[in-house]
Each structure stands twice: as structure tokens, then as C-alpha cells.
Specification:
With about 375 residues, chain A is of the alpha/beta class. Chain A contains ten helices and 19 strands. In chain B, strand 11 (about 260-270) and strand 12 form a beta hairpin. Chains A and B meet through helix 1, helix 2 and helix 10 of A and strand 3, helix 4, helix 6, helix 7 and helix 11 of B.
Chain lengths: ~375, ~500
């Protein structure tokens, strides 16, 4: 027996309970029988901010250096491109001889109007896509873009107000968007750009950078040439001495360039005891040096289909699928978005798993866009 | 049955869809689970930034408990035979609540007696009403368990006989009942700190719903799953596949086929057709009736019910990876409720604006030298839409982060910004992107008056407007918390099973 009385209104409580259902039925009858709305303002914003794909047209091509070209991409159907943060990248879908390839490129400009994106492509020795873009792509050609993606961005709550950009070679491209973004420049107190290249002729965007610097006292730029000595440039590599010269206390470092540069800088950061929070890396993927040319078989299970194609130790599973004309789901191509997430059923791979969830790792999921086969491999794509 | 024909098709692999699919598959049915997104789990998922893995909607589970004192989620996961594969971390307190305006902090312990004692310390002369509150809770828990066991077809007479107090209070709000048992106002306010987890203020929130959650929270203690929400979602999907189920990701449904007011199948985005007589939709009725079924075959009643409902809360979450542990930061608690005042009706109004400064927080260590902090703030109504545009979206994200971090720092007096190593912000746009829910709603339909828990359950059978089409998940009967969606997934699966049994007869 309970010691207290709960009735709010003893005569009414039960009736009220029984009426709950009835009230609801009446409310339903009052409701409108017009078409049910499934989307709203917010859902429309999703389409504008995160479109599933953007068809773009090349409207201008500029030769920046002997082996680098910039491509200006304008949307074909949309009024303007999706908004993005400086440092983000897009994935370009390129079809060559009936095979479809996807490659990531940093957005190398920032127009407030979002009228067009610029991407800048360096011709790589064995780069199928970069060679095509460099040699054959013409104004008027259309492509499909995915993204923008990426977290190589400035976050005012996290990052310091004194910022250092360390760029190596074509790693300069994401920084061009930062330099053109007034909102970013207003947030910071100072910006030092150390830009390393082989010679003055390899410095992409030098004129553009000098012009921006001359107009903004916050920005200081130091060009570092590794294969050319000149009195008006620094010589060598971006090393400890140069970082000590500009100072590192409370500064946030943004690093973009080849892996070799990351490794040497990481040693320096460690030595100087700079916490992780002050170091941001642009994702840069290269074939791991210890891999050799060796052919294997890749078996892919998806839906109720199974197919087997050749693959090579020096190519990612996604690259083998591209060559084998298997439609890939890959989005970011650098292992961070997880869109190509697949289950490794058999075989071994060398893979980059820093962006794979802990429980996915335990269940043998991999991101095929950053996985190289070390044996015959069977994967399942949960489609 | 050919390979394009299934006993049941579950659309959407959120908490409810996963539980429903696994429940049915374990009962020997042939089930197809279709998921539009890349991974299963819906909002119970995770993502990685730097060295941190963030839970999308890190949430203490109040209804889990332990083997000795099991809650409904523990029991459910036992029935699904996955409970041994989960490891949980008990939270050190029931909750900690802060009032910014009054610069006050109340930390409430786990355990009924400890809770009452602590309340007496904060609010003298509250013990009697707290004891009454707990005995009401006990009856509510038994009555709800009776309702669940009977899958909603309960007998009013039994309810009346065995659970008279439940019957007496089931139609009232939290505010009405607590007032009736003469609980001092301040005790009411502290006790109701959890209101924002349930998505409505005490004057709208059904007492039954609130009491069942908070009672389990206090008596069993809230837990979080050690490996995170994605681990459970993955486990449920892998068990489903192991039991012979078919899961298809990246497979959206563009049409539900209906003939003579009965479902006959679905057509996917890539024009594959699957046949079935039973569909469990783990998505909003708005999307189902508005987009997936031809308008001329949607019954008027389905339209008028859907059109008469209003959406529950949307939210903003800020995910922060800190390069210090909670101990190093000097933060003792894991669950924080931070409000300007503890008057939920007043704060509910304030939260119709977007930078309310009210938030809930969960803090847990993620390694020997780091921790994850998730700050979430609810937004009611349309203020977000008036403020945010395509052009200012990223600037607004920064403002949300600044607003929530400032509020957390003000309440706790601890500087966290200097320890931020990673940060990410999710807005209603993010939630809309990943769930497809209208407006990016997290909390389903607003639980209020005729759309509260009990009226939803009472009318469930009358609201099967198209034969074979059931809803599960945050927009369905058992409301929107993560526990509620798990429970609801099983309930709807069992009802579908019953329907199939009846067809045989």
C-alpha cells in the first residue's frame, strides 16, 4: 500500500487517460490533407553546401611554371560553387580512354563570390591524370567534382593567432586560398610563409604571393631554394635553423608538401617540444618506399557479384579498380572520408589506418584508397 | 520466394532499424536491411579527427545498468545475445547541473538513497516528496514493462487494477505531478535537469516518460559504451549478417510500392525492385508519405496526422579533442547540464534562439594524455533558418563553437580552449545531411499533449494507415532517445512478426 494519494483530480484522471487516444484522433481529423512536406530550408542548404557532385567547366587554363598549370572551374548548372574553408580540396573525376580516375586537388584560390574554383596541377612523371590534364585538357572541357573535403583548415578556437605556413613545391596550392581569404587574414595577428622549391623557376604563384604581401603587413614570406643560390633568397631546406629564426612559441604551423619534408619537420617539432595541437598537416599521399612492383589478384565482392582483377603492390586497391574499369565509390581518395570503406576478407595489405574507426579496425575494415596489396586480396564492399 | 523477395524490408539502419532487423532475422525471417548512408548506425556513429574518434551523439544510456540490476536495454541486448560483447563504463554521477545565472552547481549521485540524501542537503524538507516520486517511478517502470510485454495491446482493466497510480498520472506533465506531490520547487528543478535530453520542458514533458528515464538513471547509474556508438551499430549489423540477413549500404529507397492500401515492395535509387508485404521504416513519416509513396495512394488520415505534428528539437554539437585528461583539466564529472536557470520552461523559450548558451556536455578520457568533450545545444523552432545562409555557414559554425565553449568555461571555471587539439562542429545541416530528416531534426516529433508517449502508444494500431507499413525510430511511438529507439525497434519487429503469424491463420 502506498502512503499517499496521487490523484490530481480523482474523478477526472481515469477519464482523462481514456481520452488521450480520443484527443489524438480528433487532432488527426483537424490536420490538413495536403501533400506532406518532406524537406525544408535546412534540407535545401544541404544541397547547396554539400552537393553530391558538381559538374564544372574549365573556363581558363594558365601555365604557372614549366610543369604546373592552373585550371579555373566554373559550375555548369549551379549559380555558384559550394562554400569552403581555405585548405580544403576537391576530387576531380577524369575519364581517359574509357577509364575513370579520381584525384584530389587543393582549391588554390578563394573568391568571395564562389564564382569559380582554381586547382593547380603539377605534371608528375608517371601521373596518368596530371599528364592528361597538363597535355590534353582544353578550355571548355567538363568534369565532375566531389567535395569540398578536408580538415587542413584554420580554427580560431584551436589555432594560435600567429601562424606559420611551411610549403614545399606544389604544396603551396592550399595556402593560396588562405592568402586570398580576408576572413582568415582578419582573424590572425601574423603570418609567415616559408616556401621551399628547387629554383626560382619552380616557385608557383610567386608574383601573386608578392603582390598579396605588399598589401598586407601581417604577412611575411621567405622563399627557400634548394638547388639555386641567390642573395635575395634563403638557401637550402626548411630546417631547424629557419624555424628558430622565425620563432615557434605559441605559433601554429600548417605544413603542406612532400612526405620527406613532413618527416624532417616532425623531427624538428619533436626536438623543439612543440605540442601536436600547434601542428597541422595537409594530407599528402605517396607510394610507400618499401613497396615493389609485384602483381597480385584483387577479388571484389559487392551485392551478389564477385569479380577478380589484377592489382599491383605499388598501386592502391582503388587505382587497380580504376584500371580494371570497376566503378569505385571513392570520394576523398586520401583515406580520410571512409566512403570506400570495405571489409578485408582475405590477404594482407599495407594500409594507412589513422582515419579508420577503432571498432572497424578490429572487424578488418580498410580504406582501399590508401591500401596497397601485399598478397592476393579479397575485399567486400558493403553495398 | 525468389531472391528479390523478402519477408520484411527494413528501411534505414539506425538504432531502431538495426534492432528490428536483427530481431526478425533471429526469428527466422528473411530480412533485407537498406541503408542510404555509407555506414550503419544513423546518429549512433563516430568519426575521426586527428588522434580522436568522436561519437556523433555521445549519450549516457540510463536504461542499461548491470547484470545484477539490469535495465531494459541490458535485457534487450541479452535477448539479442550481444550483451557479453559490450563493455560499458559507469559514469561517476547521475548528473551534474550548473546554473549560469545563479552561479550554482549541483552534483547528483547514483543510488536512490544517496540521491534523496543529497537532495535533502541542497533542498531541506524535500525527502518526503522525493520518496513519493520514487514509489511512483517504481510503478511506472512496472506498468511500462507490462505495456511492452504486450506489445502495446494492453488491457485497460489490468492496468487499472495493477497500476492505479500509473493510470492516474499517465495523462499529466512532469510539472503537474511534481507539484501535486508537493515537491519543493528547487528540488523539482534539480530533479528535472535531464529535461533537455528528452527534448521538452517540464510543462510539456509527459511525467511517465521523464520518470522512467530518470529513475533508471538514478537507480542503475548511467553508462557509456566504452568503444562508442559505432561499435554497437557495427556489432548489431554484423550479428544481423551472421544470422543470414542481407544488408545493403548506399542503397536509398526512392519508392515504397503500395497496392490496394497494402505495401508490396520497394524501388531503390538504382532502380532495383524488391518485393515484400512488410516494411519497417526507420525514417520520418514526412519522408515516407511526402517522398516515397505516390501522393494519390497516401491515405488522407496519414497526411492529416503527419501534417498536424510539429518537429522536436534540432541541435548543434561541438566535438573537441583535448590534449589533457579530465583530471589534468580539473574536471571531475562526465555528464554536465549547463543552463542559465533551472527553470525549464524559461530555458525552453530561450532555446528558440540559436546561441542560448544552454548545453549538455559529456567528457571522457580518450588516452593517457587526452580526452574527448562533446558539447551539445538544442534549438527549437525556426531561428536557425533565419540566421544561417550558404555564404555565412562556416562563420556560423565558428560562432556556435565559441558560444558553447564559452558557456562551458563560464560554468565550470576551467579553461579548455588552450587544450583544444581538434575541433569539429555539427549543425542541423550536418544532421540533415547524414540522416535525411526534415529540418535536420534529432528528436523526432515534439512530444507534447496528444503527441506524447502514452497517446502515441494508445493509438498505434489505429495509425497503421497502410497495411504492412510500420514506423520505428525517433519519429515513432517510443519517442526519440537512443534507448527509446532501441526499444521501439524490437517492439515494432515483434508486431510485424505477430502480423505475419496472423496471416498464416
Amino acid at each position: 500500500m502506498k502512503k499517499f494519494k496521487i490523484a490530481i483530480d480523482a474523478n477526472q484522471d481515469l477519464l482523462k487517460f481514456k481520452n488521450l487516444g480520443e484527443e489524438r484522433r480528433k487532432a488527426i481529423e483537424r490536420g490538413s490533407t495536403t501533400h506532406v512536406n518532406a524537406s525544408s530550408f535546412t534540407n535545401n542548404l544541404v544541397e547547396m553546401i554539400h552537393p553530391k557532385g558538381i559538374k564544372v567547366e574549365v573556363v581558363q587554363i594558365i601555365e604557372e611554371t614549366e610543369d604546373t598549370k592552373s585550371f579555373y572551374l566554373k559550375p555548369v548548372k549551379l549559380e555558384s560553387m559550394p562554400p569552403f574553408l581555405p585548405g580544403q580540396y576537391v576530387t576531380l573525376t577524369v575519364t581517359i580512354n574509357g577509364k575513370t580516375y579520381k584525384r584530389p586537388y587543393s582549391i588554390s584560390n578563394f573568391l568571395k563570390s564562389l564564382e569559380m574554383y582554381r586547382i593547380t596541377v603539377k605534371k608528375e612523371k608517371n601521373g596518368m591524370v596530371s599528364t592528361y590534364l597538363f597535355n590534353e585538357c582544353e578550355v571548355g572541357e567538363t568534369f565532375n567534382l566531389l567535395g569540398p573535403f578536408g580538415h587542413f583548415t584554420y580554427q580560431p578556437l584551436r589555432d594560435g593567432k600567429d601562424v606559420v605556413f611551411l610549403a614545399g613545391g606544389s604544396g603551396i596550392t592550399p595556402f593560396m586560398a588562405f592568402l586570398q581569404n580576408q576572413a582568415f587574414l582578419e582573424k590572425i595577428h601574423s603570418l609567415t610563409l616559408l616556401y621551399g622549391a628547387k629554383s626560382e623557376f619552380d616557385l608557383i604563384f610567386k608574383k601573386e604571393i608578392d603582390e598579396i604581401c605588399s598589401k598586407n603587413k601581417k604577412i611575411q614570406v621567405i622563399y627557400v631554394l634548394s638547388e639555386q643560390k641567390r642573395s635575395d633568397y634563403a638557401y637550402g631546406f626548411i630546417d631547424e635553423e629557419k624555424i628558430l629564426q622565425i620563432g615557434f612559441e605559441n605559433k601554429t604551423f600548417f605544413v603542406s608538401g612532400p612526405l620527406k619534408m613532413y618527416f624532417s619537420l616532425n623531427e624538428i617539432f619533436k626536438k623543439l617540444d612543440i605540442p601536436n595541437k600547434f601542428i597541422r598537416h595537409e594530407i599528402f599521399r605517396e607510394v610507400p618506399e618499401d613497396l615493389v612492383e609485384q602483381n597480385f589478384q584483387l577479388t571484389i565482392k559487392m551485392k551478389d557479384k564477385t569479380l577478380t582483377i589484377p592489382c599491383n603492390e605499388k598501386e592502391t586497391l582503388i587505382q587497380s579498380m580504376e584500371k580494371g574499369r570497376v566503378k569505385t565509390l571513392v570520394h576523398c581518395t586520401v583515406g580520410e572520408c571512409g566512403f570506400c570503406r570495405s571489409k578485408l576478407l582475405a590477404g594482407t595489405v599495407k594500409t594507412e589506418d589513422s582515419c579508420v574507426r577503432a571498432s572497424d579496425k578490429e572487424a578488418h575494415y580498410i580504406h582501399p584508397c590508401v591500401s596497397y596489396p601485399l598478397s592476393d586480396v579479397i575485399i567486400e564492399i558493403p553495398l | 520466394m525468389n531472391n528479390k523477395e523478402y519477408d520484411v524490408i527494413v528501411i534505414g539502419a539506425g538504432n531502431a532499424g538495426l534492432v528490428a532487423a536483427l530481431t526478425l532475422q533471429k526469428k527466422g525471417k528473411k530480412v533485407l536491411l537498406l541503408e542510404k548512408g555509407r555506414v550503419v548506425g544513423g546518429l549512433s556513429s563516430s568519426f575521426i579527427r586527428g588522434r580522436f574518434e568522436f561519437d556523433t551523439s555521445l549519450h549516457p544510456i540510463c536504461e542499461f545498468g548491470s547484470k545484477e540490476n539490469s535495465g531494459v536495454i541490458y535485457d534487450l541486448f541479452s535477448r539479442l545475445e550481444i550483451v557479453d560483447k559490450l563493455s560499458v563504463e559507469a559514469l561517476p554521477e547521475a548528473f551534474a547541473v550548473y546554473s549560469l545565472d545563479h552561479k550554482k552547481k549541483y552534483v547528483m549521485p547514483v543510488g536512490k538513497d544517496a540521491f534523496i540524501l543529497k537532495m535533502e542537503e541542497y533542498v531541506p524538507d524535500s525527502t518526503k516528496s522525493m520518496e513519493e516520486f520514487f514509489s511512483l517511478c517504481e510503478e511506472i517502470e512496472s506498468a511500462l514493462s507490462y505495456i511492452r510485454e504486450n506489445k502495446g495491446h494492453f488491457d485497460m482493466e489490468v492496468l487499472l487494477k495493477k497500476y492505479p497510480y500509473f493510470m492516474a498520472i499517465a495523462s499529466y506533465s512532469v510539472k503537474k505531478v511534481l507539484k501535486k506531490i508537493n515537491m519543493p520547487l528547487k528540488a523539482q528543478e534539480i530533479l528535472c535537469s535531464y529535461w533537455s535530453y528528452l527534448g521538452s520542458p517540464v510543462s510539456k514533458l509527459s511525467f511517465v516518460q521523464y520518470a522512467s528515464t530518470i529513475y533508471s538513471c538514478i537507480t542503475r547509474g548511467p553508462v557509456i559504451f566504452k568503444k562508442g556508438s559505432h561499435a554497437i551499430s557495427l556489432l548489431l549489423s554484423e550479428e544481423f549478417i551472421k544470422n543470414g540477413g542481407t544488408l545493403r549500404c548506399l542503397t536509398g529507397v526512392k519508392e515504397i510500392l503500395v497496392k490496394d492500401n497494402e505495401v508490396t515492395g520497394v524501388v531503390t535509387d538504382s532502380n532495383e525492385k524488391f518485393l515484400t508485404k512488410h516494411i519497417l521504416a526507420n525514417l520520418s513519416p514526412n519522408v515516407v508519405y511526402g517522398n516515397l509513396i505516390l501522393d494519390n495512394v497516401v491515405p488522407n488520415k496519414a497526411k492529416s496526422l503527419t501534417n498536424s505534428r510539429s518537429f522536436g528539437a534540432r541541435g548543434v554539437s561541438v566535438y573537441i579533442g583535448l590534449n589533457k585528461t579530465k583530471e589534468e583539466l580539473g574536471l571531475e564529472n562526465m555528464t554536465y547540464f549547463i543552463y542559465h536557470s533551472l527553470n525549464s520552461d524559461k530555458e525552453f523559450k530561450r532555446m528558440h534562439g540559436v546561441f542560448s548558451g544552454n548545453l549538455t556536455a559529456i567528457l571522457k578520457n580518450s588516452s593517457i594524455d587526452s580526452s574527448c568533450l562533446v558539447l551539445s545545444s538544442l534549438i527549437f523552432g525556426g531561428a536557425f533558418d533565419k540566421l544561417v545562409t550558404k555564404e555565412n555557414y562556416f562563420a556560423m559554425k565558428e560562432k556556435f563553437a565559441e558560444s558553447l565553449v564559452s558557456s562551458f568555461e563560464e560554468a565550470t571555471g576551467v579553461n579548455i580552449r588552450d587544450a583544444i587539439e581538434e575541433i569539429e562542429v555539427a549543425t542541423p545541416v550536418t544532421f540533415a545531411r547524414y540522416t535525411g530528416h526534415p529540418e535536420g531534426v534529432i528528436y523526432g516529433y515534439m512530444a507534447t499533449s496528444y503527441d506524447n508517449l502514452i497517446p502515441r502508444i494508445l493509438n498505434e494500431e489505429n495509425e497503421i494507415f497502410i497495411k504492412g507499413l510500420h514506423f520505428c525510430g525517433s519519429f515513432a511511438s517510443w519517442l526519440s532517445s537512443s534507448s527509446a529507439t532501441y526499444i521501439n525497434g524490437e517492439q515494432e519487429a515483434l508486431k510485424t512478426l505477430e502480423e505475419m503469424e496472423n496471416e498464416k491463420v
